[in-house]
Amino acid sequence: MMNKYIFGASSFLLLAFSFSTSLIGQEISSLTSINTPYDEQHPVISPNGELFFSVGFHPENLGGATDFGDIWMAKQATSGAWEKPMHVKSLSTSGNDVLLGFPDALTAYVYHSGDGIKMRQGIHQYARFGSEWNYVRPLEMGNFRNQGTHFSGRLSQDKKVIIMAMNSFGSYGNEDIYISEEIREGVWSSPINLGSDVNTFSQELTPSISSDLKRIYFASNSNISGRGRDIYTAQRLDADSWTSWSEPEPLGQINTEGAELSYVIFDQDKSLAFYTSTQNSEGFGDILMITHQQENWESVAKVLDKVDDGKDLKINQLEVSNDSIIDKESLSKASTVVVGDTQAIIPVDSIKPVIVEEIKPEKQRFLKVIDQQTKEILPFTLVYTNAQGFKKTAANQEELWAALDAGQVVSFSVSSENYIPSLVADPNSIDNELIIALQPLASGSTIVLDNIQFNRGTSDFADAKSISQLDELVDFLRGNANVRIRLEGHTDNVGDPQLNKELSMQRASKIRGYLTLKGIDFERIRIAGWGGSRPVADNATEDGKAQNRRVEMIIDRLN
Questions:
Q1: Minimal CA–CA distance to 182: which of 125, 265, 245, 106?
Q2: Residue 480 burial by Cβ neighbours in a 10 Å radius (0-12, 13-18, 19+)
Q3: pLDDT score for 486
Q4: Which of 2, 96, 419, 542 lies in the 20 to 30 Å Cα band around 318?
Q5: Contact between 40 and 285 (Cβ < 8 Å)
Q6: Is 65 in a helix, a strand, or coil?
Q7: What is d(CA 90, CA 128) in angstroms, rounded to the nearest whole number?
Q8: pLDDT-based confidence at residue 405 (cuts at 50, 70, 90)
Q9: Could you give the CA distance from residue 220 to residue 544 in angstroms, rounded to a whole number?
Q10: How open is the CA angle 173-176-177, to the nearest 5 degrees?
Q11: Other C-beta atoms within 10 Å of 364: how many?
Q12: Residue 316 pLDDT more than 80?
């Protein structure tokens, strides 16, 4: 029987894979003369064509084998090969050192974590004299402060912007990406957080920015699959703002089960880029060079070139003008397919089999949202969190179910004006009709924040689902500035009653702390801790105890 490929946006989405067409046919090469058993990171090319980078845990570092990073440098021979790296002691300290870039051939900006005595934390300016570098001064950068051990950053090509990753004021979770702009020579603006379009509760690291300041590349471990850090890219949507970005997309074929970091385009004309990966190393980063091609960031699906006879397969994330069945011979003659409003070229030679499965019956899911009291049907808005930890508003139910079948929905929220929203934390369990009853937004309305879980006996959030519920609560309070709430913590009856009361108060306080960190006014949130004194179920059973361990949100009043 003829092998067939069924294309159609409305089709059942079977194969959950996609790629960026710009990355097809890329050549990846390891710089074997530079990479060592130690941690090579953060490559930067000087105006003279030298390769500078940080090496962590090298025994020759000024801080010894526990030093997070000293600056090293390698030159390129006339043959094109990189020579043996040299330790640049004049740019290094006993702490963590990261070279951000070169304003000119004789000037360098270097971050030092600081040793508390000779060198303070911050970004510093150096001047070159022959093969040595002399210290000039620290850059003034407002309220710059790194509260973590990691720092990465780069100077833009026009020398007017520094993009950096660190744990600082206003960070959403761990390391976030920030921007600082030059005010005048030696003076820069306070770092600006790029906002929740890019930054998540996880780590965003090693950012770089395109020459036109419109696209960023960065590493993140926000994906839910348990992989290491992957490289993502996002487009700046507003030239007058640093906080409006497109939804980040993974950078195609370079991402592996290892950790990828430090993606930077260093030669626009020759389309060359550096990045680092732990995939084929001994656990530390190695520097790799890759061909960077012109971006076409519309996601398309890989097409299979082999299908067992008699099995129809359907392709994920491929939109065409109409459903059609194309045999293998016809496909081999096609050079383009329509993706949205663009054309994406798919070289036939690059088509490889990935997953082969038989078509399974479609799930007939349907969502109905009603008023909890009157049972009337309500209009609603759907916002889902994808596998990379980013949020997207679904145009309708069909878009949500399609994204769910494609493995791109971790959770979703349902909201309606003048109602308290609801979070669906386990969408994969939905088989058919789901009815969600929303509570009207009124004083005294109470909901149990049952998706916020804590580690046993502590006030530490247990998992990513807890953070998702908290973020939904942040969005709700931001969208309803007149709402004041009360958070009440409860436990089961196991253990000391006074300790249980203290723990329940600590958990309510921890939630308030997260909300205020995200910009919610402290005065809008009251807290209470009741321990095990207000059970809602029988403590004689494990299920009952689980129901009693809860935090409730009560609408205190509407101003």
A1: 125
A2: middle
A3: 95
A4: 2
A5: yes
A6: helix
A7: 10
A8: confident
A9: 39
A10: 165
A11: 9
A12: no
Q: Is 87 exposed, middle or buried (0-12, 13-18, 19+ CB in 10 A)?
A: middle
pLDDT above 90: residue 258? no
Burial of residue 334 (CB within 10 Å: 0-12, 13-18, 19+) is exposed
The interaxial angle of helices 497-517 and 464-479, nearest 10 deg, is 60
Output the average pLDDT for the chain.
Answer: 79
Identify whether the C-beta of residue 73 lies closer than 8 Å to the C-beta of residue 50. Answer: yes
Band of pLDDT at residue 15, cut at 50, 70 and 90: very low
Residue found under tokens 């079977």: 14
Judged on CB neighbours under 10 Å (0-12, 13-18, 19+), 264 is buried
For residue 472, give the nearest of 508, 434, 421, 432 by alpha carbon: 421
pLDDT of residue 1: 26
Coil, strand or helix at 552: strand
Place of tokens 């090969």: 81
Q: Residue 144's CB: how many other CB atoms inside 10 A?
A: 23
Residue bearing the bigger pLDDT, 481 or 339: 481
Report the alpha-carbon distance of residue 69 to residue 53 in Å, rounded: 9
SS3 168: coil
Q: What is the pLDDT of residues 149-204, one digit of tens each?
A: 899 999 999 999 999 999 998 888 789 999 999 999 899 999 999 999 999 888 99
Q: ∠40-175-107 over CA atoms, to 5°?
A: 55
